[in-house]
Amino acid sequence: MDQSVRVITSGELLGESLTLKNKGYRLVAISCTNKDGMELTYSFNKDYELVNLRVITDTTEEISSISFIYSYAFLYENEIKELFGVNIVNMAMDFKEKFYRISATTPFKTEKEEN
Amino acid sequence: MGKRTIIPFGPQHPVLPEPIHLDLVLDDETVVEAIPQIGYIHRGLEKLVEKKDYQQYTYVAERICGICSFMHGMGYCMAVEEIMNVEIPERAKFLRTIWAELSRLHSHLLWLGLLADAFGFESLFMHSWRLRESILDIFEETTGGRVIFSVCDIGGVRKDISNETLQKIAAIMDRMEKETKEIADVFLNDSSVKLRTKGVGVLTKQQAFDLGAVGPMAKASGLSHDMRTTGYAAYCKLNFQPITATEGDSYARTVVRIGEVFQSYDLIKQAIALIPEGDIKVKVTGNPNGESFMRGEQPRGEVLYYVKANGTKFLDRVRVRTPTFANLPALLETLKGCSLSDVPILILTIDPCISCTER
Questions:
Q1: Which of residues 6-25 of A touch B (CB under 8 A)?
Q2: Does A70 touch chain B (CB under 8 A)?
Q3: In terms of DSSP bridges, do strands B317-321 and B301-310 run parallel, antiparallel, or are they unpaired?
Q4: Which is it for the CA torsion B333, B106, B228, A27, positive or negative?
Q5: Set of chain B residues whose Cβ sits within 8 Å of the Cβ of A29
């Protein structure tokens, strides 16, 4: 299985996503890790080929939602916003950090990010 | 236009095996929009990766779901094995495939029973679950557990199945195939069942693609996407094609799942016929360093495991995208325009697993 990841800037995200959508790719998942900043990995699939785009950001930068390109991205984006505190804006459906009913605020946010 | 009302559906409802809440916007008895709310059983299992080392986390992954527990363990192990360049023994690959397909049978027979229960066909519900009981008996005999059985490990599997027991399982598959034909005939041909499922909750092929649907939900709309065809575990040695339908309604989703039940009987028998002798596990030493994406086909559809490791025994991240999570948008689409009385059936036809979804 192809494991390659292509790093892009947050400014390139919408354009790259739209290009993949027009080529017939399906959004498989958006993943986030909190080491060395926030790494957002957008995974797309076509004919079993997995394409991974990565945006490295922090919790202060605004990241545009791709939910007007892939409508169902709002579920992944709400999850990441609530658990990691990534500032994703313009989501098609914004649960205002009430997607999961958890008592902890952004539990995956690192101490470094909080400072 | 009739009077618009909002009816809260769930999180507790007789048809819901697990809690999900929907605000149903109704125009008389017709659903105009459904707004989901989850989060009642979020357990923070991905966060636990900070406390459990990468070997221990196999047990956590298995507890994401009680139905496809084995497949979660397998998906996690395969992702770690990919990072560590571990090639597991052939026999272990076949054993994983057998347990994975037994899990699919467990899941689909459970779902068929729940569907029958939802439209009030109690004897059909009991027949489906009676068949499922035979699968749980096989789990117990081969692993010692009936639901979560912890046989998958990084590097292979923890337990072997004797050839004598494998032949016994093949004979059980033959018997179950005959018995399943009887209940399948009722699910597919009984007029009362058809009235509740035919033409209900239609999802077109384009909608299924546009909404990212996976598994039987997508296959019933004509999307032939089945991760098993990529050949992981021993699937590359087995002969099969994805089961699909074209109608995209609740009936088509039933057709696909019943088709997959018969397919699993066949795959298990193929695997038993081809399983080689040999070791079941290789020794794994050191710690993983790197990242990997692993995808597999669970009963409810494609699952994605993303694992990131840093060379220590504690992983940086485990992320699981479960099939129900991917199917929620498609569910919301099928609810639009349906009758209030069809909502329970439609929720069931995605075979929702909220424990998986929320982790």
A1: none
A2: yes
A3: antiparallel
A4: positive
A5: 304, 306, 319, 321, 326
Amino acid making up residue B82: E
Q: In which domain, by residue range, is B102 found? A: 4-358
Does B205 touch chain A if contact means CB atoms closer than 8 Å? Answer: no
CA distance B323 to B329: 11
Render pLDDT for B6-38 as a digit per residue (tens, 0 to 9).
888 878 887 777 788 888 888 888 888 888 877
Q: Does A78 touch chain B (CB under 8 A)?
A: no
Yes or no, beta carbons of A35 and B317 under 8 Å apart = yes
Residue B22 main-chain phi, psi, to 5 deg? -130, 130
Can you say how many angstroms the Cα of residue A77 is from the centroid of all Cα atoms in its chain? 6
Chain A CB within 8 Å of residue B229 CB: yes
| Terminal Cα-to-Cα distance of chain B (whole angstroms) | 41
Which residue in A52, A99, A107 is closest to B47 by CB distance?
Answer: A107
DSSP string, B157-206: ES----HHHHHHHHHHHHHHHHHHHHHHHHHHH-HHHHHHHTTSS---HH
With tokens 């495939």, the residue in question is B97
**Hey, of B78, B85, B236, B321, which one would you mutate to test binding to chain A, going by the most A CBs within 10 A of its CB?**
B321
Q: What is the CATH number of the domain that holds B55?
A: 1.10.645.10
CB B22 within 8 A of CB B35: yes
| Number of separate domains in chain B | 1
Which position has the token pair 């779901």? Answer: B65
Q: Evaluate if residue A114 carries a pLDDT over 60.
A: no
Answer whether the bond into residue B242 is a cis peptide, omega within 30°: no
Please give the model's pTM, rounded to 2 decimal places.
0.89
Q: What is the ipTM of this complex?
A: 0.85
Put simply, whether B294 touches A (Cβ < 8 Å) is yes
Nearest to B57 by CA among B266, B254, B328, B307: B307
What crossing angle do the helices spanning B90-118 and B163-189 adopt, rounded to 10°? 30
Measured between CB atoms, which of B38, B293, B328 is closest to A43? B293
**Residue whose token pair is 């696909």:** B256
Instruction: Please answer yes or no on whether B293 and A50 come within 8 Å at the CB atom.
Output: yes
DSSP-derived secondary structure letter, B119: T
Q: What CATH class has A3-89?
A: alpha beta
pLDDT in tens, B171-219: 999 999 999 999 999 999 988 888 888 888 889 999 999 898 999 999 9
- Check B38 against A99: CB less than 8 A apart: yes
